[in-house]
Amino acid sequence: MTDNTYYLNMAKNVLMEIKKSVVGKDEVICKIMMAILARGHVLIEDIPGVGKTTMALAFAETLGLKCNRVQFTPDVMPSDIVGFNMYNRATNKFEYKAGAADCNILLADEINRTSPKTQSALLQVMEEGKVSVDGVTYALPEPFMVIATQNPFGSVGTQKLPESQMDRFMIRVTMGYPSVEDEVSIMKSKTGGLSNRVLSKNVINAQDFMAMRDIVDEVYVDDSIYEYVAKIVAKTRDSEDILQGISPRGSISIINMAKAEAFLRGHDYVLPSDIQFVLNDTMAHRIILNRSLKRGHITEESVIDSICRSVDVPKIGTRGIL
Questions:
Q1: Quick check: helix, strand or coil at residue 227?
Q2: What pLDDT shows up at residue 153?
Q3: In angstroms, rounded to a whole number, what is the distance separating the alpha carbons of residues 34 and 263?
Q4: Cα(60)–Cα(209) distance, rounded to whole angstroms?
Q5: d(CA 204, CA 107)
Q6: CATH superfamily, domain at 219-309
Q7: Which of 85, 178, 104 is closest to 144 using CA atoms?
Q8: Residue 322's pLDDT is what?
Q9: Does domain 5-206 have CATH number 3.40.50.300?
Q10: CB neighbour list of residue 317: distance below 8 Å, 6 or more residues apart
Q11: Which residues cross the membrane (predicted)?
Q12: What confidence tier does 194 reach under pLDDT thresholds 50, 70, 90?
């Protein structure tokens, strides 16, 4: 692997900058960074007011990429996302007008408040980085990613995202409530006690960001690691506790996230601990538990942890510390 010290330092600079805006959520920030480096889409799920949108906007500003934000409501149409053709009388032709997806980072705010028809418009966008309008396909800018936020299902005005769309998110993370100390810091920064934290825009440029992703692609994965992931995934498909297991897309997401984790740790190879670190975030939103487990308040994460403990861990070294 090429010496990546320069790019690793750039990644650290991005993380440090975002931490100025989002207080006390270092692990969530790192995981979102990992997903972005792994060419994945991110779903941030939590109650209103804990900083989901602030987190997404902080990444867009710091990475120096073009960002379009859409506040999803029931009246948002698919054409708002993918674009539409408009008749031009001067040229006597229909001309394509790009939609919100024509950007590098599409911030889909409260994605589960819009109609299923509009949500379905994102399926091709997220899978292929393309949009199709009236039979013509248009490529989106490179890089392209979706950072979506949603309130928990059951909140007023929400509806559950279909499994096909959930599977296209590389990870699902939650913000959680801040600690008492962090909440004091947040209140001071928002009420004049401290100067508002201003992010430095364009900490890295698009060219360096794409080079960084290429380095992540080159991180070595041993065959024993591939087999380790395959065994974990197979158990989700055979378990009596799970109605729907992990898809091959999910397996790929685990590997790619682990590569990004290794990169941020300063490694050029993946360790079993890298896999374990990303399992819940890459798997929990992809499995469907039996109703009897849900009635018993058993979570997807606890089932995943149990499966992980039942699979032998390959012995290929110890994990370094960043």
A1: helix
A2: 65
A3: 9
A4: 12
A5: 19
A6: Magnesium chelatase subunit I, C-Terminal domain (1.10.8.80)
A7: 104
A8: 38
A9: yes
A10: 271
A11: none
A12: very low
